[in-house]
């Protein structure tokens, strides 16, 4: 199970999370782009000594996976559950959970989906391609959910910036 986050953090609003998704649409997403994004996530995690696993899926195919020191098989299970939320809803796993919380409930209580199969916890983000739509997901697991989400967003921001230069 992912560790609870005991440090006070600024929780992004639903509007901020939706704005991230609108901003982080890629002009393309090739095998090389998957490698670049996964490698960037590994580099960022190593710099921070983050005990995470990183995964990138596109159209049902795993294009990238890495497990860093301190991660465990549980992280892979969390990755699968968070990724399934992105695949089902087309939105970041953290955003899906936030939408349920905003309604005064939880994903687990109200989604009618098996919590052993789906987890609306932060860390999985849709790979959205201009003119195509959501084609996959990039997922990180091992940190508190808001930090998992923020790490993925940071890497996607860098990737998008590099693609637009």
From TrEMBL:
InterPro entries: PduO/GlcC-like (IPR005624), PduO/GlcC-like_sf (IPR038084), YBR137W-like (IPR010371). It holds the Pfam family HbpS-like. Signal peptide: none annotated. Belongs to the UPF0303 family. PANTHER family: PTHR28255, UPF0303 PROTEIN YBR137W. This is UPF0303 protein GCM10010365_48800. It comes from Streptomyces poonensis.
